[in-house]
Amino acid sequence: MTSAASSDRPLQTIIATDCGSTTTKAILIEKTPEGYRQTYRGEAPTTVEAPFEDVTRGVLNAIAEVEELSGRKILDGEKIITPSGVGGDPKTGVDMYISTSSAGGGLQMMVAGAVQSMTGESAQRCALGAGAIVMDVLASNDGRLPHEKIERIRSLRPDMILLSGGTDGGTVTHVVEMAEYIAAAEPRPRLGMSYNLPLIYAGNKDVRPRIQEILGEKTALTITENIRPVLERENLAPARNKIHDLFLEHVMAQAPGYKKLISWAGAPIIPTPAAVGMIMESLARRDGINLIGVDIGGATTDVFSVFSGVFNRTVSANLGMSYSISNVLTEAGLPNIMRWVPFSIEEQTLRNRIKNKMIRPTTIPQTLDELQIEHAIAREALRLALDHHKSLATGLKGVQQERTISDIFEQKGSGATLIDMLKLDLIVGSGGILSHAPRRVQSMLMMVDAYQPLGVTTLAVDSIFMMPHLGV
Question: Cβ–Cβ contacts within 10 Å for residue 340, how many?
């Protein structure tokens, strides 16, 4: 890998994989006279779980499919040949291998703050932006008794905890209180029993010595800059970068086969949602537009938005099209799903079909009726995920605002949502049900029905599912 990276010649061929929870997708990117082009792609089932318990098997299978289609020799046994053109043959090897991953349940985090609507919410935004699923938000004013908080921390078993609280020079007691709850719970990580749970402290800098004292022994503690140094400003980047580093060092290193995968890759492996977020952000910055992006998967739905240069990501961990399909029914209610089904069907039959999909998550619709039912459920999943996103993609709460006499007629509190459908320029859809819809118009109708855009909005679909690969 190093020989390819250290030589001065530009990259000609890149192989990229995305290890999802059900499928591992590989794409080959080659340099042509018109620029870089995605030429071939292959898919194989992900092999994190038994009987294989080695993620690299699925990666090798997906790359082998690309090899077969492209006629390029990429693998030498179980090694990726680098750089390209080894032995003078232009159809041998690749210059670089990169990968993203959400296999094994992705990155699951728990966040804690002093006040739920202020530092608690900032910590949640920070973790979501780094590509995590937030399992719970603890705060000193969340209404739970001390023993309930300790019990909750102990039972959740997250991959990582992010502790914040207090502006610099602000509250000390609340932050210390949260740290003591965590220490009392002695939380264990989800994967691997042999190592301490990674904990990132990104709160009031005056409390750092106390945090070191309380949590230094019991967790793998990392201290970084405060995510809310003053009430008027969020500083999420340093903590977000730390989450990525620890994800690689701790979480990925424990998952089966990842050590080998990391040694192959020419760039750090990042969580799939973080990669999709990066490509959305750079697209909005390049074209100077406001956009909403969605990635609807089997278990979760991610929503990304960039409005006036502010990036937000949320994950609806209970809205998906296979593993979580029954939750969509519960949250949306049957009448809301029935309104999109263009034929009459008995309530019990519809419920049975939805439950069937949940217990056989890898099946795909075989008849037009089944397809229309899945598309009806997708509309509700997309709508609910956007509602959830609107509630989190807000301005900062707790900020002092200067009022004038004209505000008497129209007072907006701090923390109003940033999502304004009239100012929206582009909606990007990706994920199995949108990417693989038999006709492009079906994807368009699903997005229009779910989001009901106002004014003039461009719609786009990631038809060959390469957003995560491009984000790296």
Answer: 18
